[in-house]
Amino acid sequence: MQFLSDAQTHKGLVRKINEDAYLSLPEFGLWAVADGMGGHAAGDIASQLVMDVLTQTALKHKESISAEIIVQALYDANRAVCDFSEDTLEGNTAGTTVVVLFISKDTYHVFWAGDSRCYLLRSANLIQLSSDHSQVNDMILQGLISENDAENHELSNVITRAIGVDADIEVDYIFGRCSPGDIYLLCTDGLNKEIPDREIGDYLLNNNVYEANRALLHSTLVSGAKDNVTSILVSIFDSNLDYECAKTIPLYSKR
């Protein structure tokens, strides 16, 4: 499997600091983004802790990294963020969302907790692989509001799951076959809340991942960039494998 990738982050035009963090380890087929929760203390430290744990895990398991190992790393990261809060924040809680993409041989794996997203552009169609762990998404699934209503809903910033908030963390996981021409986008909500999915898809049609990623950031800044913005693009350019529909599997951690 061969791919090209590009990663970037920006604090946006409103926030004073950047609480996002990202990981780009193409040599391991591993990428991740995390969005430190602004309503909690030390969100920037929480997001970076998750990236650090994932990096250490990848380096430790150079020849044997797998989906199971990545899941365990996310459990370990949850424990590390919880311990950080207990040891240094005097009763306050640090938290962060996370979404991880792992490509191994002919298969992609996506893991997430929170509302940072993974998209797949395939055959000019943009698919959101992850599903937001948020109050408004729960309300959409329950039929209480429409997707259009969700965009400006007063609860749009309420996250229902995140790393570091609870001792027990549930990580969602999907996997599927990679296909030639696939482009994967990992991003924090600072991007997808500023740019509609249709426009995101249009930018991803650019075969140059560097140019497409810069165009995404530029559009976000033009729109006001009210939050930190982080995005990673990964393009598959050499594969002869057929597509297999993604499957969803809930994974649980007990501290």
Give your account of this protein's structure.
With 255 residues, this protein is an alpha+beta fold. The chain has a single domain (2-252), classed as 4-Layer Sandwich (Phosphatase 2c, domain 1). It is 30% helix and 30% strand. The chain is built from seven helices and eleven strands. The protein has helices at 43-60, 67-88, 135-141, 147-150, 189-192, 197-204, 209-222, and strands at residues 2-10, 20-25, 30-36, 96-104, 107-113, 117-122, 125-128, 170-177, 183-187, 229-238, 247-252. The protein has a six-stranded antiparallel β-sheet, with helices on one face. A hairpin with a 4-residue loop joins β2 and β3 (30-36). The N and C termini lie far apart (35 Å).
Which secondary structure elements does this structure contain, and how are they paired or packed?
Layout lengths: L1 E9 L9 E6 L4 E7 L6 H18 L6 H22 L7 E9 L2 E7 L3 E6 L2 E4 L6 H7 L5 H4 L19 E8 L5 E5 L1 H4 L4 H8 L4 H14 L6 E10 L8 E6 L3
Antiparallel strand pairs: 1-10, 2-3, 3-4, 4-5, 5-8, 6-7, 6-9, 8-11, 9-10
